[in-house]
Amino acid sequence: MKLIFASENKGKLKEVLQIFSDTNFEIIALSEFGEIQEIIEDGETYYDNALIKAKFIFDLYGTPTIADDSGLSVEQLGGKPGVHSARFAGENCTFSDNNKKLKKELSVFPKPHNAKFISCALFYDGSKIISEIGELPGQIINEFRGSHGFGYDPIFVPDGFNTTLGEMSVEEKNKISHRAISFSKLKNKLIS
Ligand code: IMP
């Protein structure tokens, strides 16, 4: 069965391809369809935004679609940046802009800066919606470490580890990550 992955984020795609590599599902990247209109993610929850993305792509191509909406929730910032993680530093900002802004906002607080990543993985085929949540607790650190992954990976150390997600290979990150948890659960539901 073909599944479109409704994301232009190459880091997410790499992770999801690996998670589904032991199944018969063929994951189709959005890039295969050329340029598409920007999807307005104006939901208030990860679930809302994952559904907006999956519905938008299903309505365009009529192929069962999976989507991920995810973000970082920082305790000392009352859960920010949350669903606004991608554009924390403003429209068209880079991952590096977001990381710098987060470090600046946290500089007035004592350590540790407890945080967690949250991912909502969602499947939509025009009638059925299946969704699953995954979480990864950890801490935000003051230095940037590692060049793997994307987003806040270089400043996030998962609980029980000494390395940042940015220092882990995709295989290592996929053993523990919020996205690996949400999509593994979704995958199992789709298989059963
Ligand atoms: P989305 O693509 O709208 O779901 O935005 C997710 C944003 O959350 C990303 O742009 C990152 O800023 C952040 N994020 C989510 N998952 C991860 C991760 O696994 N590593 C680092 N940052 C992440």
Give an account of the 3D structure:
The protein is α/β, with parallel strands linked by helices and 192 residues long. It has a single domain, classed as Maf protein (Alpha-Beta Complex). It has helices at 10-19, 46-61, 95-106, 170-176, 178-191, and strands spanning 2-5, 26-29, 65-74, 81-82, 113-124, 129-140, 156-158. Strands 1, 2, 3, 4, 5, 6 and 7 form a seven-stranded mixed sheet that branches. α1 crosses α4 (170-176) and α4 packs across α5. The protein binds inosinic acid (IMP). Inosinic acid is lined by residues 9, 41, 68-72, 85-86, 98, 117, 149-153, 165, 177, 179. Inosinic acid (IMP) binds next to β3.
Number of DSSP strand runs: 7
Weakly predicted, low-confidence segments: none
Distance from first to last alpha carbon: 14 Å
Hetero groups in this structure are: inosinic acid
Global outline: globular
Structural class: alpha/beta
In the CATH scheme, what's the topology name?
Answer: Maf protein
Number of domains: 1
What is the arithmetic mean of pLDDT?
A: 97
The share of residues in helices is 25-40%
The whole-angstrom Rg is 16 Å
Main sheet: strands, sense, barrel: 7 strands, mixed
Secondary structure: elements and pairs:
Elements: E1 2-5, H1 10-19, E2 26-29, H2 46-61, E3 65-74, E4 81-82, H3 95-106, E5 113-124, E6 129-140, E7 156-158, H4 170-176, H5 178-191
Parallel strand pairs: 1-2, 1-3
Antiparallel strand pairs: 3-4, 3-5, 5-6, 6-7
Helix pairs in contact: 1-4, 1-5, 4-5
Bound molecules: inosinic acid (IMP).
